[in-house]
Amino acid sequence: MAETSKRDTEATRRDIAADASESTLALNPLVAPRGQDMMKAYNSMVRAAITQPDQLARQWLRFAGEMGNIFTMRSQVEPDPKDRRFADPAWKDNPVNKALMQSYLAWAETVTESVNGLKLGDKDAARARLMTSMFVDAMAPSNALLTNPTAMKTLFETGGQSAVEGLKNFFHDMTKNGGLPSSVDDSKFKVGENLANTLGKVVFRNEVIEVIHYTPTTDKVWQRPFVIVPPQINKYYAVDLSEGKSMVRFLLESGMQPFCISWRNPTAKHRDWTLQTYIEALDEAIDAICDLSGCDSVSMMGSCSGGITLASYAGWLAAQEKDDKIEALVFAVCVLDTMASTDNDMAALVTPQTVMAAKQASKLRGVLDGQDMAKMFAWMRPNDLIWNYWVNNYLLGNQPPAFDVLYWNADTTRLPAGLHGDFLDLIFTNPFLKAGALSIGGHAIDMRKVKKPAYVIGGTTDHITPWKAVYETARIFGEDTTFVLSNSGHLQSLLNPPGNPKAWYVKGAAKADDADAWVETGERQTGSWWLDWVEFLKSNSGKEIKAPKEQGNKKFPILGDAPGTYVFEE
User: Fold this and answer.
1) Domain boundaries in the chain?
2) Which residues are CB-neighbours of 104 under 8 A, at least 6 positions away?
3) What is the pLDDT of residue 291?
4) What is the SS3 assignment for 507?
5) Peptide bond before 225: cis, by omega within 30 degrees of 0?
């Protein structure tokens, strides 16, 4: 019995980690919901319900009928097979548990459909759906000890010890984790030891950036450096997690010369750092990398907000006719067309008023804090980011999962107020489609001038940067741009090493006018897109040369070992 319980516990932790890894913070979200907006949506919902009684009556009469079926054991209500809340067989085998589960599911559907059926404006409707989903998720019987059969079984099997451990975890999180359930057992990870431990040297540092040059592992390397530009929201080492997931190690094994940007974690004294600050700091780093490698250009990759930074940099260079510094571009899970990602409820948070409020808040504090963003984002997806851990940590008395992706996700950074404001301005100016709408250092950005080979990756289940919006990023760089659709979510589509038997992707040139048409013509392939991607990189990396024996030079001496110093700033 104990061995079975242990296996169940490990399975639960793996399930929690799998769910949560699809909901990493990354770029999200830069705008917080305002209380007055949510109250306005609530008032609109109440008024609509009063004026549309027939619609509500039909929904609740249907619910009453379904309750009759449940009590007579004739109901066909079943949870979604992917809903892990009701995965325990006890929810189906025990008549009381089954009736409770079916009652909740029928009620949740009725509440949701009742709200969806109200005639509301687009913004109010989206906010109403958001409020409703949070309320419905919170009321799940799996969230309470007495109505969760897994928790009750664990309580009896452990002689009450699970409750004791749950209380310990609860009080720890109340005092140490800002009141939210811990998402990861951070005692199992240490940056520089079992994370971000690929050998390399820091070869450049300015006030904003450190540059890591990784030590070659092959006798020959491709001549042109490949520079990774990570998001500013989290630490850089998403590309260098545990050994089997490390993109950097894969690049080294493929004979590439990867360099990685590690952003500094800004404080309030850096409040005036803007997008221009980051672009100019990045340009200094690229000049150093070219000098160190003896190559006059680099290929570059940006993901999420790192992709926005990279696009801005490429446009800035093109405006000065200096774009020969870049040979090829790669964008992963990055939306540049801000009008292409308005078909989800998170877009309901983005209005001129909420944007202005967000800018004023970060300006007042000097920074936008990553922990604050993480808390807000957690309530946008409470099942994956709150209630999963609530059940695991408190009701079952388990430690949170030890999962490298979740550790990285919790290792948040800050955005200086200036950069935060600039990112928010991009939402309405949409400068990557509107030439001249963005100017950096007096240079107007026109992406039509950026004529470089490009490779763009999206994820099928990415709810943060929806793949159809990422496809529009590919369209910006022309019909010859390669677009790859990976069968996974936001971060998992990036962390896609070879060897996963379930991995597949669709590949094709971005010639179709819309994403749906592209899918019809794209070529589906099994395996990891990394193998295709590295061939694209090699084709834009010059010739093979003997791997350098040393890193750094007289002008840019080695400043220390990877992972550097900026990654440790809190």
Assistant:
1) 2-185, 200-369+409-568
2) 139, 140, 141
3) 97
4) strand
5) no
Contact yes or no for 273/282 (Cβ under 8 A): no
Residues pairing with 299 in the sheet = 226, 328
CA 175/CA 66 separation, integer angstroms? 44
Please report, as a single letter, which amino acid is at residue 451.
Answer: K
Residue 133 vs residues 107, 113, 249, 367: alpha-carbon distances, Å = 12, 11, 41, 30
State the amino acid at position 71 in one-letter form.
F
List the structure tokens of 561.
Answer: 């070992």
Residue 230 has phi, psi (to 5 degrees) of: -80, 170
Considering only the top CATH level, what class is 200-369+409-568?
Answer: alpha beta
- Tell me whether strands 439-440 and 258-263 are parallel, antiparallel or unpaired: unpaired
For residue 209, give both structure tokens.
């950036």
Statement: residue 323 has pLDDT above 80: yes
Name the 3-class secondary structure at 363.
helix
| Residue 214 burial by Cβ neighbours in a 10 Å radius (0-12, 13-18, 19+) | buried
pLDDT digits (tens, 9 = 90+) for 366-423: 999 887 777 777 777 788 889 999 999 999 999 998 999 889 988 889 999 999 999 9
Coil, strand, or helix at residue 100? Answer: helix
What are the helix (H) ranges across 87-121? 90-93, 95-116
Is 304 labeled as catalytic in the residue annotation? yes
Mean pLDDT of the chain: 89
Determine which one of 260, 290, 295, 304 is catalytic.
304
The per-residue pLDDT for 463 is: 80
Question: How many angstroms separate the CA atoms of 255 and 257, rounded?
Answer: 7
Distances (CA, A) of 325 to 298, 312, 313, 317, 485: 6, 14, 11, 8, 28
Q: Which runs of E-coded beta strand occur in 163-252?
A: 200-205, 209-214, 220-222, 226-229
Distance CA 516, CA 432 (A): 22
